[in-house]
Write a structure and sequence with these properties.
Layout: H1 3-6, H2 20-50, H3 56-83, H4 92-98, H5 110-137, H6 141-164
Helix pairs in contact: 2-3, 2-4, 2-5, 3-6, 5-6
Length: 166
């Protein structure tokens, strides 16, 4: 084995203007946002596949738009955690431990799917608001921007879903 293969580079210290304590607090909260977003993604994708009834076409398309947007968001959230210097959770076990969104144990009807997705989006909103606290304290504009976008998207999505139920 050559010297290149046996040696590892020293770990570079992160110096982005945010203390390690604050980066850890932000990464911990973002991990919860990531877990909730991933669980909502799974639920939305499941409903996209399994919705039936007279609302099938419109809900099938709406759910596809929502899970596609969530897939992009999940990547951004994970990359922000990495940029802060921490490992992004990425296993079902980790997501299950971190999420506040429950998995379905049965197959709901179309409007119940809509209701559950509205509730899931509202939960992501609450989780993201909690994550804003350490980001604001640390003046971490990049995380604040990411979370503000998530608040905007999930607020609109929850409203659109609730509108089906009125």
């Amino acid at each position: 084995m050559s010297d290149i293969q046996t040696k590892t580079a020293p770990r570079m210290k992160i110096n982005i203007g945010i203390s390690e304590k604050n980066r850890k607090a932000i990464a911990d909260e973002l991990s919860k946002v990531l877990a909730d977003s991933y669980m909502l993604y799974l639920k939305t994708h499941n409903y996209h596949w399994n919705v039936t009834g007279e609302l099938f076409h419109s809900l099938h398309e709406q759910f596809e738009h929502q899970y596609t947007e969530l897939a992009d968001a999940i990547d951004e959230i994970a990359e922000r955690i990495r940029a802060l210097g921490y490992r992004a959770p990425g296993t079902f076990k980790e997501f299950h431990q971190l999420t506040s969104i429950e998995e379905d144990t049965e197959e709901p009807e179309a409007l119940e799917m809509v209701r559950r997705l509205a509730l899931g989006n509202e939960q992501v909103l609450r989780t993201a608001r909690e994550a804003l606290k350490p980001a604001n304290e640390a003046e971490d504009e990049a995380t604040i921007d990411l979370l503000t976008e998530r608040l905007k998207v999930h607020s609109k999505t929850a409203w659109m879903l609730r509108s089906h139920l009125e």
